[in-house]
Amino acid sequence: EQWDKDHLEEALKTAIVEGRGMPDGEGIKPRLAYGPLRVAVTGRQVSPPLFESMEILGSSSTLNRLKALRAQLG
């Protein structure tokens, strides 16, 4: 598993924007998809680039932050 900005961007694009990881198979516009992820990962609406931030934080920290978002959303 690669944890760098290029692989992260491609994986999230495929899963969320193109809809391959969505239950209904429908994608979400990048702005709508990445906004909540940005806040979960960085704690801010305006931040350094999302995928670079995820790479710098590392997989463990990033995934923990995303799990916290998921728990808050129910």
Automatic annotation (TrEMBL):
Signal sequence extent: none
Keyword annotations from UniProtKB, A to Z: Aminoacyl-tRNA synthetase, ATP-binding, Ligase, Nucleotide-binding, Protein biosynthesis
UniProt xrefs under InterPro entries: aa-tRNA-synth_I_cd-bd, aa-tRNA-synth_I_codon-bd_sub2, aa_tRNA-synth_I_cd-bd_sf
Biological process according to GO: translation
Residue ranges of every copy of the Aminoacyl-tRNA synthetase class I anticodon-binding domain listed in the record: 1-68
Molecular function via GO: aminoacyl-tRNA ligase activity; ATP binding; tRNA binding
Protein name (record): Aminoacyl-tRNA synthetase class I anticodon-binding domain-containing protein
